[in-house]
Amino acid sequence: MSRITKRAPGRASSRQSAPGAALPFARAGVVGPRLQALINSTNVAARIAGDPIELPHRYRDPLDIEVAALLSAALAYGRVDLFKPRLAALLKSLGAAPGAVARDRSSKQLLALCRGFSYRMTGPAEVAALLAGAGRLAREHGTLGAAFARMFQSAGEPTIRGALGLFVDALTTNDSGPTSRRLKHLLPHPARGSACKRLNLFLRWMVRGPDGVDFGLWRDIPAAALVIPLDTHVHRIAGLVGLTSRTDLSWRTAEEITSRLRALDPIDPVRFDFSLSHLGISGSCPSRRDESKCVGCPLRSICKHWS
């Protein structure tokens, strides 16, 4: 069984090991070993096959990985079996070097390349605008990671919230007027209280690792500054094991869960995300007590359904 390997320490890890406060967590000694057992039991290869991160893993050039990952994370809403084939077709239309395409093509050319894309509330205009924003950052800074590192330094905050807001602003800046409602859905802003699940997912991919799942390309951002990508699966399971009592899918809830995970691992608190999210995505964690599904679950002894 493929497993997640330990994250290699980066330059930022030694500089700032634990930004953000860890909430007092009386159950840390009980919950930590169970979450580690969940990680150890996760079949990484099988889960990657059903995860959007599988698509950027097809590239080798850092800018290609960044752009493919930004598209893959931003469009990862709804069912994986519905959005992933559309993502794969979109990336195919961009050719072997999506990073160079975003950097070197005009907005009009990008729109033409995206003309066949349609998924729920996202169409060619929104995807082309996202690519154009990424292209601007690549032209100005060389890579998206270099741009984000400057924003992180400029924001001067212990977590990535301020830098993420600057990143969204930079991606959505255009000369054609206000940002459309559809593009705001694709790139939500943390200042409006959104958990920004898909953008935090992108940041997890770029900052953590390399560990067989995440890429670890952005070595100047400490993994400790990340915030968990909060979706309905992570939120529900986090509630079951006592990582949060909050009922909303907001930035505040994501921060609360992350701060409790920091009590378990102050250097790399979101390393638990991949296994937690796939426990829910796979259907292995039922919404109610179910002996047939819960038997053998590493979290059973700390789950509210059973304890």
Question: What are the main properties of this structure?
Answer:
single chain; 307 residues; 16 helices; 0% strand; globular
Could you explain the architecture of this structure?
The protein has 307 residues and is mostly helical. The chain has one domain (18-302). It is 52% helix and 0% strand. The protein is built from 16 helices and no strands. It has helices at residues 11-15, 28-41, 44-49, 62-74, 80-93, 98-104, 107-113, 124-141, 144-155, 161-172, 181-186, 197-207, 232-240, 251-264, 273-281, 291-294. Helix 4 (62-74) crosses helix 6 (98-104), helix 7 (107-113) packs across helix 8 and helix 9 crosses helix 10 (161-172). It is globular. Residues 13-18 have low confidence and may be disordered.
Q: Roughly how much helix do the residues carry, as a percent range?
A: 40-55%
Average pLDDT, rounded to a whole number, is 92
Compute the CA-based radius of gyration: 19 Å
Strand content: under 5%
How many strand units?
0
Structural class by secondary-structure content: mainly alpha
Counted up, domains total 1
> End-to-end distance, in Å?
29 Å
Overall 3D geometry?
globular
| String of helices and strands | HHHHHHHHHHHHHHHH
Largest sheet: none
**Count of individual helical segments:** 16
Secondary-structure topology with pairs:
Layout: H1 11-15, H2 28-41, H3 44-49, H4 62-74, H5 80-93, H6 98-104, H7 107-113, H8 124-141, H9 144-155, H10 161-172, H11 181-186, H12 197-207, H13 232-240, H14 251-264, H15 273-281, H16 291-294
Helix pairs in contact: 2-14, 4-6, 4-12, 6-8, 7-8, 8-9, 9-10, 13-15
